[in-house]
Records
---
Amino acid sequence: MNRKKTILVVEDQAVNREILCQILAEDYAVLEAENGQAALDILERVGEAVSLILLDIIMPVMDGYTFLSVIKEDPTFSAIPVIVTTQSDGDADEVAALAHGATDFVAKPYNPQIILYRVASIIKLRETAAMINLYQHDRLTGLYSKEYFYQRIKEILAQNPNRDYDLVCSNIENFKLINDAFGIPAADRLLCGFADLLQKRIQDRGVCGRLTADRFACLVEHHREYANDMFREDLERINALTEIKNIVVKWGVYPVRENPASVEQMCDRALLTAESIKGQYGTHYAVYDDTLRRRLQRQQQITESMENALEQKQFEIYLQPKYRVRDGALIGAEALVRWNHPEWGLQSPAEFIPLFEKNGFITRLDQYVWDAASALMREWNGRGLPPLPISVNVSRADIFHADLTNVLLETVKRHGLEPERLHLEITESAYAEAPDQIIETAGRLRSLGFVIEMDDFGSGYSSLNMLSRLPVDILKLDMKFLQSEIEMSGDEGIIRFIMQLAHYMKLGVVAEGVETETQLLHLRAIGCDCVQGYYFARPMPVREFEALMEKALSALNSEEKVGV
Amino acid sequence: MQSMKNCFEEYGADYTGTMERFMQNEALYVRLLGKLFPSVELRQLGETLMTGNQADAFDAAHTLKGVAGNLGLTPLYEAVCAIVEPLRAKEKRADYPALFDAVQKEFMKAEAFWNALKGGE
C-alpha cells in the first residue's frame, strides 16, 4: 500500500485551513500550521517528508513572504514546492509570491478541483525533477554522472561545431590503496575536494563529470597550450585537501578537433593518455598524439590477433639456460614465450605480455606454455636427454583462478611427469598484493610436489616476516636490484645477507640477469647457487637448448669414460 | 437538504458552488460558518478604521474577504470587497465608516443565515 504524501497547510484562518484539509484529506496526509513560524517548526520536525506546502500570505507572527524567504535559503527545504493561496483580486500578490520563490498559486475562494489537480501535478513534477537530478549528478561529488556527462558533451559539441575543445581526464594513482589505508570517509573527502577544485577551475567554461571512482573528466574550450606547472599546482592543492599525503594524479588531454571520435572513445583515449605516464615521477599530464594513437592501435591489433595466434601456435617457447655456479653445470631452463607472427615477425614479450596481463589473456597463454614445456620434458625423457626441470611463469591472474592446482596437476600428469619437473615462478609483487591467497595456493602446489620459485625477488616489497611465511623453494634475485650492490663490491652488502638468509631458510638462490664476469665472480664469492643471464646465454629456441643438453651429456659421458 | 438549499437561496448565496468547496459536507459547512462569529477581523477592521491605520485595516478586510468568499457568503463578500479595494489602493476616503457599516450589516445577515441553517439541521 502506498503511503499518502504529506502536504503542509499554512493558514491562520481556521475556516480556510479546515476547508483545505477537507479538500485534501482523501488523497493526502495533511499537516496544519497557523503561521510561518509554526510551519518552520513542523518542517524542522518532519523535514523532507513534506511533498508540498500550501501557504497563505497574510498571517500573524510570520507572514508567507518571510516564510518563503527562510525556506528557500535552507537547502534541506528549498526543493519543497510551495503553492501560495491568494485572493483573486489582481496580479500583485501572485507576482510577489512567485518572486519570493513560490512554485504556483491558487485563488480564494477555493476551487477543490483546481487545487487537487495543481497539487498533484506539482508534486509529480518535483519528483520527476528529483529523479532527473539523481540521474544527472554523481551523488558523492555533485559532478555530472558519467551518462549525463557524455550526453552534455554531445550537446555542446553539436551546438558549437566551430570551436576547439579539450577533454581532460584525471586518474588518482593507487586510489584503492588510499581507500584501504585511510578509510572510505577520508577517500570520499578527497574525491569531493578534487571535484570542487575541478568545478572552480572550469567555472562556466566547460563541464565536469565523474567517470568511475577516482576518474574525473572535464570538457573545456581549448584556449591555451598546457604546461606541467599548471597541473603541478593543482596537485599541490589536492595534496592540501586532506590528511592524505603524496597523492599522485595523472592527467590525460584529448584534443577534440574536427570529426571527433565518439564521446566514449574520447574519454577512453584521454584516460589511456593519463595511464601512459603512470609511474613517471614529475610528469603530471600528457596529450593524446599520433605516437599514442599508434600505440593504442597497435594494442588493438594485438588484442584482435591473440586468439588466432594461440590456435595457430604462433607462440613459441624459448629457453634460457640456468647454470650451477660451483661447477658450471647446466641445471635447467626458464621457459620464455615469443610470438612469431607470420606478418609482423618476432614480437617482443615486453609489448604483448603487459597487455595480456591487463586483458586476462595471460592465463590462457600461461597454460599453453605449461603444456608446451611439459610436452618438451616428456620428449626429452623419451630421447634419453637429462631430466632437467623447466621454470614457467605463473601470473597474478592465474593465482586467482580457482582451478589453478587442478590445471597444473593435470598438465604434468597428461605428459607423465612428476610435478617437481615443473618449477613455478611467481613474481614477488604478487605476493605483496595478495599474501593470504598466494600463501594458500603456493602451499597447496608445493605439497603436491611442484617447486615454487619467487621471481624478481628484490624488486618488490617483501618483508622478512612475509618471507618466513611463504611456501617457497627458490629465490630468484633480480640483477637490476643487485647492480648497485655489485658495483659497490662491499663485503658486507645486503646481497650477502640475503644469500645467508636464504641458506639459513634452506632456500635455493638463482641470480637472473647476470651479464658480466664481475657479477659472476661476486655472486660466486658470496655463495650464490645458480645463475642465469646473457653472460652465459640468451633465451634460445628449443633445438639450440637441446644441443646444449646433448653437449653437456656427451661431456659427462667422456668424463665417465676417462674416469673408468 | 432542501431546507438548507432554500436557506442559501433566501440569503443570496450559491449553494451548489459552496457545497462543492466543502465536499458536500453540510455539517462541516455549518460548523465552520459558526467560527465566523464573533469575528476578530471585523472588530479589528472597525478599530483600525477609527484610528486611521489603513494598512492594518486592509489586512483585516483582506482576511475577511477570503473567509467570506470561501464560505460562499456572497452578500458579505461583496460588501467586504467594496472596502478592500480602496484600502489596497491606500485611498483616503470619507466613506470608510459607511462602507464598514455595510459590512457590519451583512455580518448580521450572515449570522442570521447561520442561525437559520442551525435551526434547519
Note: The mean pLDDT of chain A is 87.
---
Amino acid sequence: MAMLLAGGVGSRLNILASKRAKPAIPYGGIYRIIDFTMSNITNTNIDVVGILTQYKPLSLMEHLDNGRPWDLFGRTRLVEILPPKTGEEIFDWYKGTSDAVYQNLGFIEDFSPEYVLVVSGDHIYYMNYNFLWTFHKEKKAEVTICLIRVPEDQAHNFGIAVTDEYSRIVDWEEKPKRPKSNLASMGIYMFKMNVLREALREAARIGGTDFARHVMPIMLRNNRVFGFEFKDYWRDVGTIDAYWNANMDIIRPNAGLNIEAWQIKTNLSVKGEIGDRPSTYFSRICRVLNSLISRGCIIEGTVRNSILSPGVKIGKDATICDSVIFHDVTIGPNSLVNKAIIDKNVVIGKAVQIGIGRSVPNQKFPDQLFTDITMIGKNAKIAPDIQIGKNCIINPNVNLMGINVIESGITV
Amino acid sequence: MVLAGGRVDELLCLTEKRPKAAIPIYGIYRIIDFVLSNMMHSGIDNVGVLSQYRPYSLMRHIGTGEHWDFIGRKRGIRILPPYRGLKESDWYKGTADAVYQNISYIEEFNPEHILIAAADHIYHMHYQSLIQFHIENNADATVCFTEVKSKTDRFGYGVIDKHSIINQYIEKPETPPSAWVSMTVYLFKTQFLIDILKDNATQPSHEFGRDIIPKLVGKSRLFGYKFTDYWAYARTLASYFDTNMDLLKGKIPLKDWQIRTNLVEGCEKSDRLPARIDGEASNSVISDGCVVLGKVENSILSPGVLVEKGVEIVDSIIFHDTKIKRNAQLKRVICDKNSWIGENATIGTFGEKVSSKEFGDLLNYGVTVLGKNSFIPNNAKIGSNTVVYSSAEIKNEVIEPGSVLR
C-alpha cells in the first residue's frame, strides 16, 4: 500500500496554488500534477492508497473521485482521502509529513501491509516502484529513500544524502548550507511497516513531525537506511519557472518526458459537466505550431509552443506563444499572449497584449517571478486594449478595466 | 427502448464489424450517443438497448452506462440480446419482434408510457415535450416526424392533420404523400403497445414502420409530433459523409447539445494526450491523441490519428488510431479504425470518376471507404468510389476507381 502526501501548500507557485493544493494544479492540458504519482502507483499494482490532504483539498478530492480513473476501485482496491480529524486523543491538524502518516497509523494497520510506500504527490516523473521494492528487499533495508542527482548549486534546497559503496546512507542533512553531496531526496520512501511504526512513535515522543527533518535522523541511528538512485526524468515543479518548463518539456523534443509511454491516467469526467466536450475545431485561418491542444477548444488564431487545456477559445488573429492556458479561457481577437500562465475561466478581451515590454522581476515576489512569465489568476477579466508587461501577476477574480498599461513586474 | 440492431448493407465495410449505431461520428462520438444523451437529458431512468448484430463494440461502448448516468438503484441501461427460452423464439425477426420478446423486461418497471427510438439518427430532442404532447392528446401512440427536402423512398411518410392526427402513413412509397417522414421515435401507452405486439406476433412480419403504425391509422388515437430542428441520418455512405461534413459547416451545435460519450474506451492503458499539432489544420475537427505534422483540411479526425509530414488530407473522415505515413494524399476518404496508410499513397484522387460497378448508386459519391485495420502499402494508388473491406489484402499498387476489394 501507499501513503500519498498531498498536503503541500506550494506557496512558491503563487496564485496557481492560492485556491488548490499543489498536487491538484493542472498540467499538460488535461492532467493534474498528482496524476503522475497516482498512475505510477496503479501501474505498479499497488492496491490501496491513502491520500493525506490538508490544504484546500476540494479540487483534489473531486479529481480523485472514487479512484476509478486509476482502477483503484473495488473491494480490495481503493483510494481513501485522509483529512485531519479531531475528537480522538491528540489528533489535530497535520503538523508535518510524518505527523500526517503517524496520525493515520490506524488506517495503515487495517490492511496489515509488510511494506509501506510513502510518496509525495507533487512531482512529474515515471517510476515503477517494483524496482525500488526489489532493491529494498535485496539490500535487506528497513527504509529505502529514492535519490536523484541535482545541480550542486541547488542542493541546498533538498534533503541531501551521502551513500557508501553499498548504497547505504551514512549521512543525511535536510537543506544543508554546505551540502556534502548532490544526491537529493525525491520524497519517496519504502518502509518496512514495523520499522515505520517504531520510528513514527519515537519521532512523536520527541515532538518530531517531518520525515526529512525528524524521522530520518532517528532511522539513520537505529535502522538500515539505503538510497535508491533514480536517473530518469524527474521534476519537482515547486517554482513557477520549473512548472512552466515542465509543461514545455512535453513539446520539446527529447526532453525525457513521455506521458503516453508512461501510461498516465487522469480523471476526464468533470463533475457538473453536462455533456462531453466535442473535439477541437481548427478554423480555416488558424495556424498551430508545436503545440498541445486539448478537447473542446476553438482555434481561430495562431498558437505556437503552447499548451491548451480543454475549452479554450482563441479569437481571430490572436497570437499565443510559449504559454500555458488552463480550462475554458477565452482570448479575444487580435490579442497577443506571450509567455504567460493563464488560469481557468479567464476572459481576455480583444487586442489585449500580455507579456510585452521590459524584463524586470516582479516587485512583490522578485524571487518567484523573474523569468518573464506573466500569471493571470482564475476567473480574472481583462478588458480590451490593455497592455500587460512581463513578470506581472493579475490576481484571481480581478476585473481589470479602466487602465491602459500594466508595467512589467506589477501585481494587480 | 433503443432499436440498435440494424446492420444495413448500404454502409458497406463500415458495418462489417459493428451495428450502424456503433459507427464513430464527429471524432469522438458513436451514433448511438445522440439518442442516449437525449434520453439522459429527458430524465429517462431505464433504457433497454435491442441489439443483435455483432453487439460487442456496442456493449463495450455502453459499458456500465455510467457515461450517461444510467447507473444507480433505479437507473440502468441493459443490452437486450436475443435469447432462447422454453417457448420463446431466437433471433429478433424485426423491430417489433425485438420489443415483443422483451415485454417482460418492460413489465419489470411497469411504466405507463414507453418510448421507442432508433439509435441511428443524429438530433437533439427533449423527449419530455413529446411526452407532454402525447399525454395532452390522450394518444395511444405518437410518432415523431421531421420534414425532408428531398423525397426519397427510404422513409416512412405521414400525413398529419391540423389536430395532429395521422390520417395516412405509408412506408417507403413510390410517390410520397407529404414531406414529413418518421424519425423512428415512438411513444406508446405501454398496455396498448403490449396488446398490439401480441397481435403482431401472430403475423409473418414484425416491423414498426411497415406492420404496426399503418394499421393504427384511423383505428387508434395515433398522433404525429412534428420535430423541426436539425435531424440527420446515416443510412447510406453519402448521407453518412454529408452528416459528418455538416459539423464543419457549423450546422450542428454540438456544444449546446451536450452529448455524452464513453471517453475511456480504448484508453485502458492511459488517457490520450491532447492533440499535438505542428502542421496545418484548416476547417477541421481534430481529436485527442492525434499527432498532426502534415496538412489536414475540411476533415474530421477521431482520436489517435497520426498524420506525418508531407501528408495531405482533404474532405476526409479518419477513424481512431489510423496512421498516415509521409507524403500520402487522401481526398474524400472514409478510413475506419486502426488502418495503416503507407508513404506516398494516393487515395481518392487517382483515375477517372466512375461509379462502383458492383454497388452502383450506393457508391457513386466520389468517396473511397477503407475498412477497419486496412493496410495500404507504400506508393499505392486507389481510385474513388472504391471500397476496401477489412479482410482485403492489397496486392496491386494500383486500384482502379469503382473497385471492390474483399
Note: The first strand of chain A starts at residue 2 and ends at 5.
